[in-house]
Write a structure and sequence with these properties.
The complex is a heterodimer of chains A (295) and B (258). Chain A is 71% helix and 1% strand. With 295 residues, chain A is mainly α. Chain A is globular and about 80 Å long. Chain B has one domain: Rossmann fold (3-Layer(aba) Sandwich), CATH 3.40.50.300. Classes of the chains: A mainly alpha (295), B alpha/beta (258). At the A-B interface, helix 8 and helix 9 of A face helix 2, helix 3 and helix 6 of B.
């Protein structure tokens, strides 16, 4: 009979089915650790989870109470570090993508960016200690810690911005050049407006990274404990040290005896929740801006 | 023939390399003012490269070296006192794929004015006037006058291509370079663009690169045949197709290779 299935073909089909399910299984297994982690954390943290936990200050030698000073400290660090790394990173990426010709100097810049991205965070911490705390005499301070975080996030912002710029079709640039626009006019009129969603997404994703890192701030400006008024939004000065969520979690888990068990877990839930919230914002923003542009 | 037959673009011994690959070899041509001149030849013969030399847009792609001379309206465009900005205002380009910017029809047309203009030119009234003039000239005004705020990328391809031509006009160019402007269009669109070219002829010098020999034949006054980076033949279109002077031209237009 024509086109009848042969044993050989049947065997191939069976392999096809097996392959598909194996690949699917591996991909689907990614959900398991996430669900387990969140579930475990929330379950252990449950007794402490409340709005009060957010806005209270630590009590009884940090054994109880909330995380307000650490939360505010983390916001300080993240905002300040991105205030430095976002403009520097975006402008550097614009140079590399729009102006730089392929010569030895620009290749060195590229190499520097790639290598900077691969430096472990503890090494950034030592660099920040040497450069900002001692050499620049900022001392152990919010400034030093933020700058260290800025150095750490910079290469990733450059990379993500370049990717966003490169995704703008070349024909848009050609259209500009051919009415005699300069490069800067081209960038302003066409390149940036059409890549802003990608650029912002890249920056926002670095918010969660800056908030989560412990090592770089531990050596440069984060402190175990700082007395802060409940609900005070501006408890820190920039040349002082501050508390931070990631550092606080480390401290509670390893340095303070007799902490109520649910407190460090609640801190972890808060950190994780903040990261998921920020990432979700990035994804929604990207989707919104993407839906607006059509080409 | 509607225009004086002064040369508008002349090249002498023009050589161009992309890194080590030589794409143009000793090209010397005299392109007459106000006519439509077509550039034909098989893929890779250098016709697009030659076209892109005339507003020096090749230089944006790196690794390009050029020797020889290109004179446009009597001025050597490689002279140090030539401003690329002014050159590109005078020598506009239309591409294979229509490339309107993802902004409104209106803003596309006045884009060049906004880039260059200052003061009075940018008053709403003069911009409005420029849009009406340019869109009328390319035959889009009646279709689009109520849709000037529509996003240009939502127009039909043919309208997009006309818009790309209209975008050049407010800058009062002397030369319009067209790189296979109809290859993304259907028969109707192609006809419309060719009619538009006839309408613009005389006031502008038009150079068109085309893969379509029939198009070169019906839509151009003069024709340049190129092969492997060299200019083989440059004559009046009807002469080139009826009585080619070079056996390689004859074989190409007979379709022996391509």
């Amino acid at each position: 009979m024509m086109f009848a299935i042969t044993p050989h073909v049947r065997r191939k089909q069976r392999h096809e089915t097996i392959a598909k399910w194996v690949f699917f299984g591996m991909a689907a297994s990614m959900i398991v650790p996430l669900v387990l982690i969140i579930g475990y954390l929330v379950e252990r943290a449950w007794p402490s989870l409340s709005l009060g936990f957010l806005i209270d200050v630590p009590a009884r030698g940090m054994k109880e109470g909330g995380v307000w000073p650490a939360l505010v400290g983390t916001i300080y660090l993240v905002v300040l570090s991105l205030a430095v790394s976002a403009p520097v990173g975006v402008l550097a990426a614009v140079y590399l993508n729009e102006y730089a010709r392929d010569n030895w100097f620009n290749r060195i810049i590229n190499l520097a960016v790639i290598n900077l991205a691969g430096v472990p965070s503890i090494v950034h911490a030592l660099f920040g200690l040497g450069a900002f705390v001692y050499a620049a005499r900022f001392g152990y301070s919010i400034i030093s810690a933020s700058l260290t975080l800025a150095i750490m996030t910079l290469p990733v912002i450059i990379a993500s911005t370049r990717e966003a710029l490169a995704s703008v079709p070349r024909t848009f640039r050609e259209a500009c050049w051919n009415v005699g626009a300069t490069r800067w006019q081209t960038i302003k009129a066409v390149v940036l407006p059409n890549s802003i969603s990608g650029i912002l997404t890249g920056i926002i994703l670095q918010v969660s990274r800056a908030a989560g890192e412990t090592a770089p701030i531990m050596f440069t400006g984060a402190v175990f404990f700082k007395a802060v008024q409940k609900g005070d939004f501006f408890p820190y000065r920039l040349h002082e040290q501050c508390m931070a969520l990631s550092m606080h979690l480390y401290t509670l888990s390893t340095q303070v005896p007799g902490v109520k068990e649910s407190v460090p877990f609640a801190t972890a839930v808060l950190l994780l929740g903040a990261v998921i919230l920020v990432n979700a914002t990035a994804i929604i923003l990207r989707g919104y801006l993407r839906a607006r542009k059509k080409w | 023939m509607s225009a004086s037959s002064q040369p508008c673009i002349t090249t002498r011994d023009l050589n161009l390399w992309y890194a080590k690959f030589q794409a143009l070899i000793n090209v010397s041509v005299d392109i007459k003012e106000g006519l439509i001149t077509s550039l034909i030849g098989p893929s890779g013969c250098g016709k697009t490269t030659l076209l892109r030399c005339f507003n020096r847009v090749n230089e944006r792609y790196g690794y390009v070296t050029t020797t020889g001379q290109i004179r446009i309206l009597g001025k050597n465009i490689y002279d140090p006192d030539v401003s690329l900005i002014e050159l590109r205002k005078s020598v506009g380009m239309v591409f294979q794929r229509p490339n309107p910017l993802p902004i409104s029809v209106y803003e596309n047309v006045v884009f060049g004015l906004r880039i260059h203009g200052e003061g009075d030119v940018l008053r709403r009234a003069s911009l409005d006037q420029a849009v009406e003039t340019a869109l009328t000239e390319v035959g889009l005004w009646n279709d689009l006058k109520d849709r000037l705020d529509a996003k240009a990328t939502t127009l039909q391809l043919e309208q997009q291509q006309k818009l790309c031509i209209a975008r050049l006009l407010p800058l009062k160019p002397r030369v319009i370079l067209m790189d296979e402007p109809c290859s993304a269009l259907d028969v109707e669109g192609t006809r419309a663009i060719e009619e538009l070219m006839f309408g613009l002829k005389g006031r502008y010098t038009i150079l068109i690169v085309t893969h379509n020999m029939a198009q070169a034949r019906r839509a151009s006054d003069e024709c340049i045949f190129m092969l492997l980076g060299e200019r083989v033949e440059h004559r009046r279109t009807e002469d080139l197709f009826l009585a080619p002077g070079n056996p390689r031209t004859a074989e190409y237009i007979e379709g022996r290779y391509g």
